[in-house]
């Protein structure tokens, strides 16, 4: 009888691979002795050497990172950011930082690959075939750089600004972040001694207003030490900067310099966004997404609209302007600080009702289902719903609630094609139809994308 074999760890092994299609998550599919290997920093059609980063003889699939290209694709270009260049890092015996995993690909090809991934998710999870085009967000001449108005950094053991390698605890010191807006790089945080700080989050509004540096301290760092770091941040900046301390476990935000929020804007609307509160990352995302929402939903004067997962009110404000004083906008946001921002941002707009809470719970309490002769019907009416859930999507419960509410249109903003396609599948199974679908390249040089879809309910029975 054969001895049972112990699974062996194959991590570190270098494989020669032929690269196939892109997969969701920024990988490309290859096969080694029949097993699927998800390879990063490669391109379809390439032949590469890739080092296994996650493997085991009993694992269903492996992960690997390209270390050398034997036959390059015509779409391969020089990476715009050295620390994220996998080939450079491998040549120096290291690993690249995460966050620009498509930087080795020409921008137009990045968009073609994202379109293919989006279409595949629609096919696999919603069972529909749809041609997808990914629209560029900026001018091609900016090279897909300088768009991040928000960036998170780690701090290494010697107090230097750093970033994580992909799926790793390894920290790599960084200087300059070419995907970030100039105002973030102008802070030169890499010159600041950040000892005592675990993480740094920077927000620099595209409208040029004062940036905010959030210091997330290591456990036990004294207030005096944090004040020293704040002073060093301010001294190194070439313009006014706010500094605050954010302690996620206590949910406590402490202002050290300037203010504890930033002033964002979109069109004629201004928004204060506190601490780590949500705001769209790409400098043009607020305008692009607001335009897509208004075009796709077409809110009318007097209508009742819900803006779900509303953040600081980016879509609530233009929706309220469109429905006017005779309409109503219910704006639902889960995070307490962000919901407070929404309340402040929209306090002068009487047709807006800000509610803090989980979307499913708020819908249940505002529109309790009641049993009528024709079955379950919600009390009250909604003409249109906009939802912009986090990466996990809205889920089956919320989709069912929206189906019962039967607005004339649902506008779904999504940052994850897989959870969107899953939710779309739920809508389609309830008889809804996909109308508009737009996908935007709001995260150049990464595998991420943003989308907007408008959905139409089934026609009422008897019509
Ligand atoms: C992708 S952001 C969108 C925010 C806003 N639409 C914007 O574009 O600025 C998602 C928001 O949903 C909130 N959120 C997450 N889960 C939630 C839930 N179950 N109920 C309500 N809000 C939630 C988050 O705090 C976050 O502000």
UniProtKB/TrEMBL annotation:
Keywords per UniProt: Methyltransferase, S-adenosyl-L-methionine, Transferase
Name of the protein in question: TRAM domain-containing protein
SUPFAM superfamilies per record: Nucleic acid-binding proteins (SSF50249), S-adenosyl-L-methionine-dependent methyltransferases (SSF53335)
Organism of origin: Arthrobacter hankyongi
Family annotation (Pfam families): TRAM (PF01938), tRNA_U5-meth_tr (PF05958)
Gene3D superfamilies registered for this protein in UniProt: 2.40.50.1070, Nucleic acid-binding proteins (2.40.50.140), Vaccinia Virus protein VP39 (3.40.50.150)
Annotated binding of S-adenosyl-L-methionine, by residue: 280, 309, 333, 388
Active site: 415
Keyword Cytoplasm on entry: no
TRAM domain sequence ranges: 8-68
Domain of life: Bacteria
Stretches of the chain forming a coiled coil according to its record: none
Record family assignment: Belongs to the class I-like SAM-binding methyltransferase superfamily. RNA M5U methyltransferase family.
